[in-house]
Amino acid sequence: MAVAAANGIEIAYTDSGGQGPAVVFSHGFLLDQTMFDRQVSALTPHYRVITWDQRGHGGTRATGAFTYWDSAADVLALLDHLGVERAVLAGMSQGGFLSLRAAMTAPDRVRALMLIDSQAGQEDPAIAPAYEQMHQAWLDNGPGPVQEMVASIILGPGQWDGWYAKWNEQYAQWAPDDLGQLNWPFRCLMDRDDITSRLAEVTCPVLIVHGTADAAIPLARGQAVRDGLPGPVTFVSVEGAAHAANVTHPDEVNEAILGFLRGLGAGIGDGL
């Protein structure tokens, strides 16, 4: 893993290199770039695959409060650092939030978008109080008491010991003196602006992949993004997949991603 000084922060990232077109993957809340390991393996033979840790996640520290517009500037600055003029931006959940904003900020830099279990609106006010309570419990007592509930929302049924270990390790690293690393990303998530009315600004091709069992962002939210986009949209629903469909159903998601990229003419020897 490398580190780039970009947009005023130190961004931890991994770059497969190579001559293929660039595809940048941005992870979801409470996750990190490793959530895309199966996508990296599937795409690397033909694409330059870049993954990175967002502020307050993995190896990238937050320096204070931020928004997804700041995160969009981060990914564009990372492209500058890597000398990439134009890329396909792929994002799961909050990774999609920032990727949409990057496409609005610098449309000439974004060849296409791939949105996995994402949306353009804000949190449902009916469930926001429960998220606030879980977050406070996490801050007060660490992940242990709520980690299974959180994992069930993000990853669905199963035993997610690897993620439990990461969450507990990061909490131990930041508590009690640096809990902003947990609080700032959460406030970014909960206080984000609604960009639904701006979807018409995104004219590049878009792939939307959404799990039918997504409890965090219901399928209808993904369909609303589809309906608000003016450009060509490919919509793929993944039967039975929870919020992180690319983790729980990697084969189906990889098939959709590779098919979409081939449709762009985005292979070795093809310009983006």
Can you tell me the CATH topology?
A: Rossmann fold
Weakly predicted, low-confidence segments = 266-272
Radius of gyration from the alpha-carbon trace, in angstroms = 17 Å
What is the average of the pLDDT values?
95
Sheet with the most strands, sense and barrel status: 8 strands, mixed
DSSP summary, beta strand count: 8
Shape: globular
Strand line-up across the major sheet: 1-2-4-3-5-6-7-8
CATH architecture: 3-Layer(aba) Sandwich
What is the domain tally?
A: 1
Structural class by sheet pairing and helices: alpha/beta
Helix content: 40-55%
Distance between the termini: 25 Å
Oligomeric grouping of the chains: single chain
CATH class: Alpha Beta
CATH superfamily: Alpha/Beta hydrolase fold, catalytic domain
Number of helices, counting only DSSP H or I runs of 4 residues or more:
10
> Strand share of the residues?
15-25%
Describe the structure.
The protein has helices at residues 37-43, 68-82, 94-105, 128-141, 147-154, 161-174, 180-190, 219-228, 245-248, 250-263; strands at residues 2-6, 9-15, 22-26, 48-52, 87-92, 110-116, 206-211, 233-238. It is α/β, with parallel strands linked by helices. Strand 5, helix 3 and strand 6 (110-116) form a beta-alpha-beta unit. The longest helix is centred in the first third of the chain and has 15 residues, at 68-82. The protein is globular and about 50 Å long.
Present the secondary structure layout:
Layout (H helix, E strand, L loop, with lengths): L1 E5 L2 E7 L6 E5 L10 H7 L4 E5 L15 H15 L4 E6 L1 H12 L4 E7 L11 H14 L5 H8 L6 H14 L5 H11 L15 E6 L7 H10 L4 E6 L6 H4 L1 H14 L9
Parallel strand pairs: 3-4, 3-5, 5-6, 6-7, 7-8
Antiparallel strand pairs: 1-2, 2-4
Helix pairs in contact: 1-10, 2-3
